[in-house]
Amino acid sequence: MENVETPQNANEHCPGPQSETAGKSDACQGCPNQQECATAPKGPDPGKGGVGKSTFSAQLSFALAGMDYQVGLMDIDICGPSIPKMLGLEGQEIHQSNLGWSPVYVESNLGVMSIGFMLPNPDEAVIWRGPRKNGLIKQFLKDVYWGELDFLIVDAPPGTSDEHISIVQFLLSTGIDGAVIVTTPQQVSLIDVRKEVSFCKKVGVEILGVVENMSGLTQPLMDFKFVKLKTETGEPTEVTQEVISCINEKAPELLKVFAQSEVFDSSRGGAERMCGEMGVEFLGKVPLDPRICRAAEEGKSCFDDDKCLVSGPALKNIIQKLVKGLESRTPLTEFKKKTVKLGFMNL
After folding, report:
1. Would you say the pTM of this structure is higher than 0.85?
2. pLDDT reported for residue 6
3. What is the distance between the alpha carbons of residues 43 and 46, in angstroms, rounded to a whole number?
4. Calpha distance 214→288 (Å, rounded)
5. What is the helix (H) or strand (E) element at residue 235, kind and residue range?
6. What gap in Å lies between CA 233 and CA 222, rounded to an integer?
């Protein structure tokens, strides 16, 4: 897709959406993009990626669909759509019906929409300015026939940028139940999460809670690979079989032990402490689990056959807390009739 410096329908002397005078200069008067350009952030998107918000959104969708809710998952990460892979939908295409665009379905009660379905090549770079991103997000909401939903989950990119402003503007009048923010324990991530919390408060989006993802590596001891390192070079030599044989012979009770390790520095209290300081709910911790990473790579639910022994129960507790909180605000007889929109504007 082309690099769009200015919107196609812009005025003749458009300064460009990333200009400090965008939407404010004399050349912008009467332009259909004036308001969007004036309010859009300038410069590159702030925020940390890679904290697992798409993984969380995907597994949340699987879980809610498994609870017999009608679920829609909308991926508004225009430049880095990963939801199709995480739902096992790579290579699928969007189809047009007389009712509009049809979501791509994982199950009859789980539909997905992403720009990833529109790319002729999965390696294609999408280099779009704000107005084009905003236009596509609006189409995802207006032109997609979602049907009757219990939950619409919106998976957003890092930061507090075009996509976040757009989705809030488009959905706020219809009623957003709130945002779930995903972070990792270390300060370099929490610094940006604080900005995300402030963003939600400023635009009037309730924060349903914060999830601390990758909260320590936890896995069965027997899933580890054991190595010896050469003192001079640091080169590893695998000794896994020797270690397992020794455990089998001398301490078989260790075969059922799980090992834990702090991958990120959480000495300053992590997300839980931040939530206390900023007055938002802490939903819980999800440990870094190679099995949930494998489920995301394979586009599968980590709840199938209890494959994710470590992360699965943690995710279930968080999801149950979320649903219980929403039910408490809506009479139980009306809850299933209501379209619930959960905005995921996470870091």
Report:
1. no
2. 57
3. 9
4. 4
5. none
6. 27
